[in-house]
Structures are given as C-alpha cells and as structure tokens.
Design a protein that fits this description.
This protein is an alpha+beta fold. It has helices at residues 43-53, 66-81, 83-90, 101-112, 115-126; strands at residues 2-5, 13-20, 27-30, 35-36, 39-42. It has one domain (34-132).
C-alpha cells in the first residue's frame, strides 16, 4: 500500500493498494475508480472538462483552481495527440470519419456514455487508456 495525491494541490491524499506477483516479480496497483493513472485529477472532473472542450454541457463547476487547470490543459493536450490511436481502439463503435479531438470525444461519449465506461472499454479491449498506454495494462511477457 502507498499514498498518492488525490488532487492537484496536494492537500488530499488517498491510499492505493499494491500487490506483488511472486511469479512475474511485478507489482500491480489498484486505483480507486475515481482516479486516473499518473494524474492527480478525479475522473468526474476530467470528464466535465473534456465535455467542455468538446462543446458538451457547460464545463466544470466549480471552476478549476490554477493547479487543476494546468493538469486539465495538459490532459487535453495529451488527448489531442492520441486521436488516431483511440479511434482505432474503439473501431466499429465510432464513425469512420473523425475530424479531430472534439469530434472524437463526442463520439466516444455517444458510444460509451461516460469516462469510466470509456476507460473500462479501452483497458479491457485494447490494453490502452485515454491518455497513455501504460505498462500496467499490458500482459507480462
């Protein structure tokens, strides 16, 4: 078990369970459902921010503080670099023509309804995540 920041400002910490596999020698951390790998932003906040970037809804309420806003902008910038990879990962769930990150997010939300469902689908079907393809999602060699 270890602790990590639960929010960008670092005032809140959360406990993360960690397990060691004797067979392969790797450790696996189990994140609570409201947390993202390597990001101190809650899933619900990122979903609302991405919705705002794509023109869905009114965005974040309450507005993000300075640190959280920076984390969210970096997440959006990373998402924009992954349009092709994510489009291919969702395959036939999406239309064949995606014009950019905003369109991709709108289509992903239409296909899977929420960020938790999108994350679950990406992890189970393609061993991917929204903002990166992390080692923890790959099967041991």
């Amino acid at each position: 078990m270890y602790h990590r920041f639960a929010t960008p400002c670092g005032q809140e910490r959360t406990r993360i369970q960690r397990f060691y596999c004797v067979r392969c020698g790797l450790t696996v951390s189990v994140l609570p459902p409201e947390h993202l790998p390597y990001r101190p932003v809650r899933v619900s906040r990122l979903e609302a921010f991405l919705d705002g970037q794509a023109g869905i809804g009114s965005g974040l309420d309450p507005p993000p503080g300075l640190l959280e806003a920076g984390c969210l902008r970096r997440a959006w910038a990373r998402f924009q670099t992954r349009v092709t990879v994510l489009r291919e990962s969702l395959g036939l769930l999406l239309p064949s023509v995606i014009t950019g990150a905003q369109d991709l997010w709108n289509q992903m939300r239409r296909a899977k309804r929420s960020l938790p469902q999108i994350l679950q689908f990406l992890a189970h079907s393609g061993k991917r995540s929204l903002l990166g393809d992390y080692r923890c999602l790959r099967l041991p060699a």
